[in-house]
Design a protein that fits this description.
- By secondary structure, the protein is of the alpha/beta class.
- It has 2 domains: about 110 residues, Cobalt-precorrin-4 Transmethylase, domain 1 (3-Layer(aba) Sandwich); about 110 residues, 2-Layer Sandwich (Methyltransferase, Cobalt-precorrin-4 Transmethylase, Domain 2).
- Helix content is about 35%, strand content about 20%.
- The chain contains 9 helices and 10 strands.
- The strands form 2 sheets. It has a 5-stranded parallel sheet with strand order 3-2-4-1-5, with helices on one face. A 5-stranded mixed sheet has the order 6-7-10-8-9, sandwiched between helices.
- The longest helix has 18 residues.
- It is elongated and about 60 Å long.
Amino acid sequence: MKSKGHLYLIPNTLGDSSLSDILPQGNIDIILKIKHFIVEDLRTARRFLSKAGWKGKINDLQFYELNEHSRTKDIQNHLSEAEKGLDIGLLSDAGTPCVADPGADIVAMAHQKNIRVIPLVGPSSILLSLMASGFNGQNFSFLGYLPRERGNREKAIKDIEKKAYKNKQTQIFIEAPYRNSQMLESLIHTCALETKICVARDITLKEELIISQSISKWREQKPLPEIHKRNTIFLLYK
């Protein structure tokens, strides 16, 4: 019986960076041998593969779409080539697949089908911001998005602030880039003066900015950092 192929989880850069600065050569060597890819966006995937050094015709590759709009029935056949013995790459648009990123359903399906899952090394803005925050890296929680409406958002902030104090646990969350400024304003307005907030913007890029300080310091800071429509991670700790 022919052995099954592998599902490689392929990270991407977090912005317009050189692949050689962010990803190890071993990743590139693997990527250039794969002919089947599960991707969020076809244009982004093609651009990534061109930067990686793909020499053939992009149209010779097979792409399967997987994004937040995909339903379970839409992805049932995405691993069919792996069952025939061919390797498949699950490619993120930015950062690492399956972490604040689509792909977990495909990975779960691969395990069910006894297809080996191989995660490749790459940047995670969540973990990089935690590393740089000075907050507790032994006990942390990633919350995804908080409520978008201001009243509900500020109630959620108070709740996670209590959790941070009670459990000595770093709270990590994100916001839609066009609402980043409102999130920072809500944090400064809502949290206790001694609570610490880290804002990590454009991790690994030339414009990278990481500020970690208490709310009392944030209230004194003028102007606040420019984070509107910029990739930003927020962290809260006691």
